[in-house]
Queue: 4 jobs
Job 1
Amino acid sequence: MIIFGSTTKVKKIDNGSFKCPNCYGQKYELSEVNRYFTLFFIPLFILRKIKDIVRCEICNEVFNPENVLSISKYEPIINNQSLKIIGNFGKRLFAFIIDSLITIFLSFLLKKLLTLLNYDLLSRYRTHGDSSVFFKFIIIYTCIWFIYGLLFDTFFKGQTIGKMIFHLKVVNIDGNKMNFRNILARNFFKSLLVFIGAILHFFILIISLIIKSRRKTIHDIIGNTNVFENNR
């Protein structure tokens, strides 16, 4: 039984007036054709954008936008669309999972390196057994997550590896590039949630994405940021 796959959907993004080459009608509808990932035949998120189309509302003939629309009409719409769509829940979730796997892997590498160097993070404290091992790993994982997010948000303009894969981008509340205060606040609070508990962080992320307006997580609210789909 196939439980996942893909499907194509057409989404309207604008309309206006033009001169149809087929019937000389004056009304058009601009749409984008996207390939969606489906689970149990339910479209969850966009895998990739296929193309834009223009449909005459009089004769229903379909055209390439570049052939029938002027640059002044078409380009501003497309440029505005590149950061107009708020990050899809499914995309944000899978991007988070990818970034988590990367930071867990880096944390294991750092822990292994510290072990080889005989460096004990908790040498000042009397902690023994499994709780000590877990606590050490959480400290390393929290630091790695903070540095990972801080570096990628700063030098890759709001895109971690997971966000790059799913074409997501973190911007400030106005839709512009984050400043360092946004980046620091967002990643500090996100790392704080990791320290409280990686599992708790995972469920807080999901719950806040579902119940908060405009799909904002708690660290989005603290950092005064939002995540948009980056279709450029």
Job 2
Amino acid sequence: MTDMQPILVDTKTACRLLGIKKTLLFQYLKSGDLERHKIGRKTLIPLKNIQRFAERGQV
């Protein structure tokens, strides 16, 4: 069996991966620099977008 990576991660995980605080993450989400999906009250961010965002050097 292969190791599966998540497609979407929660805000806590996104902050940890990017090395930023939650406040800055939500600024990026609000400005549209990072895409988000809302499922109920939960905010989820595509892992691919986090990787691209970090590669662009915006963090």
Job 3
Amino acid sequence: MNNNLLIIGAGDYGQIAYEIAESMERFDKIDFLDDNSDLAIGKIREIEKYYANDYSFGIVAMGDPESRYMLTRTLKENCFHVPVLIHPKAHVGKYASLKMGCIVEPMAVVHSGANVGPCTLISSGAVVNHSTLIEGYCHVDIGGLVSARSVMPRFTKVNPGEVYSAMKFQIQPESKKASDQDFIREYIKMYGREPNLFDGV
């Protein structure tokens, strides 16, 4: 295993992901796969080839949530480790939970007790408040706010400057660290099924 990262997508989101990964100072080499960019070292369909060529880590950086869903599955099927990218100038609370493939841009805030599902994009200036559940493959765009105790279904986008406060939880955590089990029990009570915390991969 090595510390080389392959970013799937070399467009706007890919270049932001590159900057974040570089600022983390944890990867020895960072490259792109993309079907339409001179920055890329190969095509997206060549994912398996480039794993064999010493890229242990891979992440999908695209705006389209369906693409993030499908291509993350492809990465996992080809034995890539899918990291979480957090810019050093973002704030992520000690008791926040971010699943694989999340990208958190500079000046974004993810408070303690937030549960963020896989491959979610948190753009600059966005705030994910405490005791929230984001199911995965979502996007909180620039300046967006997810208010406390909200539940966000997968593939949801919060537009720039928008406040999302739908599907409220009613639980009151007894400590600063909100319990995942409390979230799951309340979710089942409200919606008759378990939340998709580890959805699709």
Job 4
Amino acid sequence: MHMETIKTLAIIAGEHRNMRHVAGALSVLGRRFATGSADETALHTVELVADYFEAYSNRFHHARESEVLFPLIRRRTADGAAVLDRLDHDHQGADRQLARLRHFAGNPNRYTPENLDALAQEIDSFCRHVEEHLRLEEGACFPLARAALTAADWAEVDAAFAARTDPLDHDDPAEAVAVLRARITQLLPSPMGLGATVDHAPVAPRPDRSADRPMLAVEGLHSAYGRIEVLHGVSIRVMPGQLVALVGANGAGKTTLLRCISGVQPVTAGSVTMQGTDITRMASDARVRAGVCQVPEGRHVFQPMSIDDNLRMGGYSRPSGEIAASLDEVYTLFPVLRERRGAPAGVLSGGQQQMVALGRALMGKPKILLLDEPSMGLAPLIVAEIFRIVKMLRDAGITILLVEQNARAALSIADHAYVMETGRIALEGPGRDLLNSDNVRKAYLGM
């Protein structure tokens, strides 16, 4: 597959992800309206959703498909003409659906039971139509495009899609989009943007939090790259069942410490013990078998390989008879991966690739899960959901050491936390205490 193909389909998949976010939030409102419950905020949110779909999805996403992608496919092959006709027809009728949503959300009788029931039905129809349309594109149009288009075609499509980005992914969006993004986050209590519809995590054996022996203990650790020492006597403890955060500026040594714990970075002095067993000199693969599983910074999925094969790689040290059950656990946590299990990981959005990386680590049945910058490079809408999943995994009994530059988010969910500065531990304490510390707020939170 051409790199242009992967890049373009990744852009489209990311836009589809956001459309599902918005439709999912709208569906939550529809269920409320069906019970007769409504207020001005909820009805205004329907109008914001209609504005988003009209201003971005219809005018840019759909237009780029109908004006660039679909004509190129038609030029290269006669196959799939009926599918493209159906998709074009959907694009042309999208504004009429949005007009009906606006009518029921904004008319003078909007609070009457009859109007709310009609609005709920219209929302249900709209959301089902959006999902059917996206599935048709992903299941029929994308494979057709991959088979028919040339590298030059993909370059043209890529240029068209890269010219305008989804406003939901902007770091500093317009006020209306910022409001919509906040309301979506409030309306979706489960990580729907990552594919799940219920809070469910593989349940680890519930650890004894009263135990005196730490799950992981690092004592006086030193490590160097060549002659340059980057860790200077670091000591941390992670108790069973805890979520411990490690925060600090770039270059503080956070990732190096995780690499030492995983066994891929040499230790020059000090020790690493797990449940009382010294693993300082243990090979990295043996540490995985012992239950040390890491989600690396940048995700590092195997892009040409399928989602299913990526996940199986995480369980390579496990008995083959246990793999099917573990896969089912991961797919239950992230249903969108089950739906696309045969797709190459390289075409997924950043958030969905983070899902694969998390799932791959969970396949190893970790006693302690090492997470390195899980929010890096993700849209703000996805970051909150990533942290919701991390907390959910902790609540399911998994011990977690979280390295994160987003100090506010990490400290808000951490049981205990350490602050690193230039290869040393500068501060430690309960996550909430550090979050409220004036020194931490000034140095790391910009407050």
